[in-house]
Amino acid sequence: QVQLVESGGDLVKPGGSVRLSCAASGFNFNDYYMSWIRQPPGKGLEWLTYITPTSSTMFYSDSVKGRFTISRDNAKNSLYLEMNNLRVDDTALYYCVTTRPYNGDFDHWGQGTLVTVSS
Amino acid sequence: QSALTQPASVSGSPGQSITISCTGSSNDIGNYKLVSWYLQHPGKAPKLMIFEVTKRPSGVSNRFSGSQSGNTASLTISGLQAEDEADYFCCSYAGRDSWVFGGGTKLTVL
Of A1, A78, A76, whose CA–CA distance to A36 is shortest? Predict the structure, then answer.
């Protein structure tokens, strides 16, 4: 079955950087669009970014454009999120999610990795 | 993009039906038939329950149904069960390859 396992979450100071990883298994990763979605503690969900199967195109929400970079390595069945210039309000659980853009939905979710931005 | 608007909480007794609304705008819900709904139990990852407004993924109970009228989408759960108690989030495609979520609704089964 589909498995998505995020890692890399950490306690980071404002202005710092962190790189998240997501290891995918149980499906043909090469064929899937992938997104990162976050959830601040006790709050709602926010879509951040998605990447096409061949990395030809990436899209970002306005809140992270210019600070976050999504990438993937299909040979390693892995998705990444490089996060720079972190702010306190970036504190959240970050989910790696398979994306069906033509259905407009997110059908499989990892368990998330926590990024805490605090001085 | 502005978040979609959901009621903070709804409640119902076992066996009853409840409906959760999700209000957006002509830039998202009203312009695309691409509304999805997610269930999230405490400490767990969200789970897709409804896509393309009315469709259920394989394995999702037919007690869950979705609808849309204008800029508002709705999720109805019939025959409420204790296990339905969770947070529910709506989501809509918002154009230009972006998505917007609702703030979430906490469902309490009395």
Answer: A78
Interface contact flag, A104 B99, Cβ < 8 Å = yes
B92 touches chain A (CB under 8 A): yes
Residues 84 through 113 of chain A touching chain B, CB cutoff 8 Å = 95, 100-101, 103-112
By CB atoms closer than 10 A (0-12, 13-18, 19+), residue A58 is middle
**B1 falls in which pLDDT band (50, 70, 90)?**
low
Mark yes or no for CB contact B51/A100 under 8 Å: yes
B102 pLDDT higher than 70: yes
Q: Which residue has the tokens 């339905």?
A: B84
List the beta strands (DSSP E) in B1-110: 9-12, 18-23, 35-40, 47-50, 64-69, 72-77, 86-93, 99-101, 105-109
Average pLDDT over residues B40-68: 96
Q: What are the b/e assignments for A14-45, b being 16+ CB within 10 Å?
A: eeeebebbbbbeeeebeebbbbbbbbeeeebb
Please give the structure tokens belonging to residue B64: 């869950």
Per-residue confidence band for A3, with pLDDT thresholds at 50, 70 and 90? very high
Per-residue model confidence as pLDDT tens digits over A18-57: 999 999 999 999 999 999 999 999 999 999 999 999 999 9
